[in-house]
């Protein structure tokens, strides 16, 4: 059931945010942490071992989550109070770094319970919501997000059907969550200010060890914007050719036509946007089906990719404890996630795997998280995390990007012929751009809006209007139907927002993954364009990556970046070089079609 999945997710998040100072805080705190960890593990083991849906009601599950949150929050506050009692003048830099990660002030118990209730409710509702419609035969057809609505948004070419799905989902989720999210912002801001931040957005940004992140990401995007604008114009033409006047050739793109429920990833537009459709396909899904691929086989092949580089294999109990297919007996949140249970041995993935290339790449991505977790498992719990959130995401995307190359697909038998064909190259580069470049402004807006909302830059009565204003101005995407800012809050209709994840990590990872790719390709001895590199089976690349991963978050992210790339900053050179042949091709095609580069807006 969805409530159970929310319990599991939120317990995991709660424990990740629990910081323990071994050797600094008195022994009773360490003992309390150990008891808490064991309690956490027991809850999860019970979930995995028994048919939990028959044992617990959703109400009881929610109560368990709230109680777990209360215990960990109280512990966090106690640990923080303890940590402030030390004179750290003569402490080592490492001890000071650990102390800086110990706990935080929390709200009063009633407000902490209210905040826990809000997040738990949104997770439960999101996982169990169904969009329902009457069929031509008069029966009721109801669809969950996974897999039914996701498949519809991937495959349907009926703009009215797509609009129905988009509107039903955004109305159902956004209107249900609006008032709760307003209160969530109030409570998160209050707790952030107790800990010395100006607001919750400030707290998020300072995880990146800079006070200028907001300006920094704007500068990064401005450097990549020309590439995005060319991609946007090209996709707009292809959508117009598919859907006709639903698309304005000089305006923003309608939000319901972009391949998924949110317009986050455009990869599902590949079938209508491939520049040279008669060339060898770079989507091996039909070949995977023909070869009898199963979810387990997909995971086995992905694991071998990592071990071929000398990286760590999955622990023996990984498959026994993971959920790699959607269960038939309960509702689950299918959003793929990788879990670290902090004992150095128990690592799991929760995913509703389909036999499709998209999911094959997702598996490689999630195993990137798992590999990172295994590599830093020897560190104290403070440091069991990525150098920053963008690093964790970049590692997974880096591996998926390598696996998607025609060279790699040929190596593992999913591509029959490896051609040196510029047209196949352009097809491949467009496929990659639809999965990465298209996400840059999307992720930027998701957090730019939230930073503004946390800061109080606009009144709550205008929250949804301001969201779509930013979407139009920066992403070039508009709401496909009329929205009411007094009722709707469409930004909450995506998992990450209603479950308290920042999304700037995905913006950062998209740039960082190309820096990492360039470094690993150089280590592997690759010669030629970056987009043709496959570091599969390169022990040299594996050693370079493992050295960085094993640092966890024990050092500032700039040190981790330097360890793998030799650079201390996030730079756009590698991603620009990777996509330069596509940018040149898109520019020529858009000139040929006399496209407007950019769009007119209604704001």
Folded structure, characterized:
This protein has 603 residues and is mostly helical. 59% of the residues lie in helices and 3% in strands. It is built from 25 helices and 6 strands. The chain has a two-stranded antiparallel ribbon. Strands 3-6 form a two-stranded parallel sheet. A hairpin with a 6-residue loop joins strand 4 (337-340) and strand 5. The two termini are 42 Å apart. Residues 1-58 have low confidence and may be disordered.
Topology:
Layout: H1 2-16, H2 27-49, H3 52-55, H4 58-83, H5 93-99, H6 109-128, E1 131-134, E2 140-143, H7 145-155, H8 159-194, H9 200-205, H10 213-243, E3 253-254, H11 270-273, H12 285-290, H13 295-307, H14 318-321, E4 337-340, E5 347-350, H15 357-375, H16 389-403, H17 406-411, H18 422-435, H19 439-455, H20 463-475, E6 477-478, H21 495-498, H22 504-524, H23 539-549, H24 557-565, H25 573-592
Defining key terms:
603 residues, mainly alpha, two-stranded antiparallel sheet, two-stranded parallel sheet, 6 strands, 59% helix, disordered N terminus, metalloprotease, carboxypeptidase activity
Termini gap: 42 Å
Number of strands: 6
Judging from the principal axes of the Cα atoms, what is the shape?
Answer: globular
Strand content: under 5%
Range of helix content: 55-70%
Which runs of at least 5 residues are low in confidence (pLDDT < 50)?
Answer: 1-58
Protein name: Angiotensin-converting enzyme
Family: Belongs to the peptidase M2 family.
InterPro entries: Peptidase_M2
Pfam family, one: Peptidase_M2
């Amino acid at each position: 059931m969805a409530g159970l999945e929310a319990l599991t997710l939120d317990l995991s998040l709660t424990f990740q945010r629990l910081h323990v100072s071994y050797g600094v805080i008195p022994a009773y705190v360490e003992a309390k942490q150990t008891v808490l960890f064991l309690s956490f593990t027991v809850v999860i083991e019970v979930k995995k071992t028994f048919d939990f849906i028959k044992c617990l009601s959703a109400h009881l599950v929610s109560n368990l989550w709230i109680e777990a949150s209360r215990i960990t929050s109280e512990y966090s506050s106690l640990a923080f109070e303890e940590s402030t009692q030390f004179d750290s003048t003569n402490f080592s830099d490492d001890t000071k770094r650990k102390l800086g990660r110990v706990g935080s002030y929390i709200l009063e118990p009633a407000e902490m319970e209210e905040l826990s209730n809000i997040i738990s409710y949104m997770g439960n509702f999101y996982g169990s919501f169904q969009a329902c419609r009457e069929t031509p035969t008069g029966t009721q057809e109801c669809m969950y997000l996974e897999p039914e609505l996701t498949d519809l948004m991937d495959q349907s070419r009926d703009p009215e059907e797509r609009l129905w799905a988009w509107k039903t989902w955004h109305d159902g989720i956004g209107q249900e969550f609006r008032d709760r999210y307003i209160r969530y912002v109030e409570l998160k801001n209050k707790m952030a200010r107790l800990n010395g931040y100006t607001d919750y957005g400030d707290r998020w940004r300072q995880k990146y060890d800079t006070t200028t992140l907001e300006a920094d990401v704007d500068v990064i995007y401005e450097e990549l914007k020309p590439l995005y604008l060319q991609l946007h114009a090209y996709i707009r033409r292809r959508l117009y050719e598919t859907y006709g006047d639903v698309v304005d050739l000089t305006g923003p793109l309608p939000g319901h036509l972009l391949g998924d429920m949110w317009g986050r990833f455009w990869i599902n537009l590949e079938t209508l946007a491939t520049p040279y459709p008669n060339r060898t396909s770079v989507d091996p899904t039909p070949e995977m089906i023909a070869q009898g691929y199963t979810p387990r086989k997909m995971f086995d092949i992905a694991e071998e990719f990592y071990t071929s580089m000398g990286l760590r294999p999955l622990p023996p109990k990984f498959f026994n404890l993971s959920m790699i297919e959607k269960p038939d007996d309960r509702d689950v949140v299918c959003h793929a996630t990788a879990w670290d249970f902090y004992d150095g041995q128990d690592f799991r993935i929760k995913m509703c795997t389909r036999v499709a290339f998209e999911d094959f790449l997702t598996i490689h991505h999630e195993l990137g998280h798992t590999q990172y977790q295994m590599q830093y498992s020897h560190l104290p719990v403070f440091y069991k995390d990525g150098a920053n959130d963008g690093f964790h995401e970049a590692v997974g995307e880096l591996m998926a990007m390598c696996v998607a190359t025609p060279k790699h697909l040929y190596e593992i038998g999913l591509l029959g012929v490896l051609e040196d064909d510029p047209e196949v190259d352009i097809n491949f580069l467009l496929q990659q751009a639809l999965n990465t470049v298209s996400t840059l402004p999307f992720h930027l807006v998701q957090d730019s809006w939230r930073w503004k909302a946390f800061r109080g830059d606009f009144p709550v009565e205008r929250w949804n209007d301001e969201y779509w204003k930013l979407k139009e101005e920066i992403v070039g995407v508009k709401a496909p139907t009329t929205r009411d800012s007094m009722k709707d809050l469409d930004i909450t209709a995506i998992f990450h927002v209603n479950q308290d994840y920042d999304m700037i990590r995905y913006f950062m990872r998209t740039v960082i993954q190309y820096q990492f790719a360039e470094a690993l390709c150089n280590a592997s001895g690759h010669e030629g364009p970056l987009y043709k590199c496959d570091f599969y089976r390169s022990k040299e690349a594996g050693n370079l990556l493992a050295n960085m991963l094993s640092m966890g978050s024990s050092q500032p992210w700039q040190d981790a970046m330097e360890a793998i790339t030799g650079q201390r900053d996030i730079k756009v050179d590698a991603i620009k070089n990777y996509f330069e042949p596509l940018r040149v091709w898109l520019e020529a095609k858009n000139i040929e079609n006399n496209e407007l580069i950019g769009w007119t807006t209604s704001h």
